[in-house]
Amino acid sequence: MDFQSCVNIKKEWDIVGARQLGRDISRKIGFGTVDQARIATTISELARNIYLYAGTGKVCFEALEDMNKKGIRIVATDDGPGIQDISQVMEDGFTTSGGLGAGLPGVKRLMDSFDIVSTEEEGTEISVVKWLR
Amino acid sequence: MSTLKLDLENYKELLQEYIKTKDEQALYQAEQFSKHSMQQNISPEEIINVHIQSLQEIYPDMPEYIQSSMNFLLETMISYGLAYQEFQTLREKQLELKSEISVAANMQKTLLSTVKPDLSDIDVGALSVPAKQMNGDYHHFVEDGKGNLGIAVADVIGKGVPAALCMSMIKYSMDSFSGIRTDPSVILGNLNRVVERNVDASMFITMFYGLYNSNDHTFTYSSAGHEPGFYYYKDRDEFEEIDVPGLVLGVSPEVSYKQYEKRVEKGDMIILLTDGVTECRQGDRFIDQEEILHVIKQYSHLPAQGIVDQVYKHFERLQDFQLRDDFTLIILRRNV
Ligand SMILES: Nc1ncnc2c1ncn2[C@@H]1O[C@H](COP(=O)(O)OP(=O)(O)OP(=O)(O)O)[C@@H](O)[C@H]1O
Ligand SMILES: [Mg+2]
């Protein structure tokens, strides 16, 4: 896979850059306003987690084109501490922000598919896909 | 998606009508629209999107800044939509939990069930009502077939599921001691060891254990920090508190409990209870001991079970039919 479009996350400001790039790409793919907003929210959540828990990492975008559908894949990668108990993190109401509905369970709701690979002490890769309808 | 598109037409017409007439009718329909949308799990940002699209169609020349401001609003609604969805999931989970707890409560009822003894010499009344679904009080009767009746009354400090789990453990330990030795002090000493070893340090259990020997009509008893009961002297028509010292179960590994003995005369009553009875409240007022004894006396012409039932009814009504704590009351009376 060839990720042309990536944004490195080092400072909080980079979250905005990632949102901007993600929004541009999703607009080009043909996503409407609502989905653009959902994609931007997803990017914020993933990028902010990198910034807060891993320190640095990157968020990459890939335009998907299947036989009959189009979509976007977003992959957030870092080599931070990893997530110990993924099931727990994916439970509603677990996030430290508590009850705001966002966090990783929120990301899962906003996207069509969601996957986490995380190894303790090595890092985390979260990959999500949203299809155009 | 198709139903949403249908709704877009609908929404556009409603909006148009409202802008023209400022009619309450249209607003009422907007309310219906929003309820319907919630039922279909449509989130706020989608409604705003429908609003934007309707505006564009009604006003093709809508200024650009209005469009932008609407997009801005849409963006701010995303989190509300997520919070709403999370709320829905949590609500489903809560219903699930509720039904699980009611299954558990039924299981507990079966587990902890005890048969009220039917003896000719003594009349026994017993009632235990949980404040919530699960009961943190426990009472148990054991007969040895030689004229001895063992009575245990216990209360876990704490309520709900943890208290109930704890009680199930107590019940099984008691079962495993039965038939060995029935001295109240020995039973409490053994239980104390079990509780100390197996129960979280933050959980306390109080217990009163009494043994009624119907051959010589003596009542032997020990208490592990349990709410004091009462003794009623028929001849003097007086109540006396059965307040005996004893450490709560599970605090310290080796505790020896003192044992006391009383001769029971004809017509005398032994009243055992949990603090759900003595800490009944009417509004902010605690009900005092006198009042409980007064009510018991008032119904003392009834059989023991009748007294117990009437006392419960009395305090249930005083508390507006909402128990604050589990309520357990046992009355024994010597008949002959
Ligand atoms: N990239 C990551 N590296 C290490 N740990 C992470 C990473 N992303 C998430 N976590 C862990 O998973 C937990 C849950 O993350 P999530 O984003 O769902 O909620 P949150 O960040 O605690 O709160 P918020 O709702 O503000 O996002 C975090 O508290 C953190 O411990
Ligand atoms: Mg987060």
TrEMBL record, chain A:
Q: By its UniProt entry, which InterPro entries does this protein fall under?
A: HATPase_C_sf, HATPase_dom
Q: Which UniProt keywords are given for this protein, alphabetically ordered?
A: Kinase, Transferase
Where in the numbering of this chain does the Histidine kinase/HSP90-like ATPase domain appear?
Answer: 34-133
Question: Under the GO molecular function aspect, what terms does this record hold?
Answer: kinase activity
- Which Pfam family, an example, fits this chain? HATPase_c
SMART domains the UniProt entry points to = HATPase_c
Give the range the annotation lists for the signal sequence: none
Its name, as the record gives it, is: Serine/threonine-protein kinase RsbT
**What is the native source organism of this protein?**
Halobacillus karajensis
UniProtKB/TrEMBL annotation, chain B:
Identify the Pfam families for this entry: RsbU_N, SpoIIE
Q: Which stretches make up the PPM-type phosphatase domain? A: 123-334
* Domain of life, source organism: Bacteria
What keywords were assigned to this record?
Hydrolase
GO MF terms, alphabetically ordered: phosphatase activity
Q: Per its UniProt record, what SUPFAM superfamilies does this chain match?
A: KaiA/RbsU domain, PP2C-like
* Descriptive protein name: Phosphoserine phosphatase RsbU
Q: Which organism is it from?
A: Halobacillus karajensis
What are the top taxonomic ranks of the organism? Answer: Bacteria, Bacillati, Bacillota, Bacilli, Bacillales
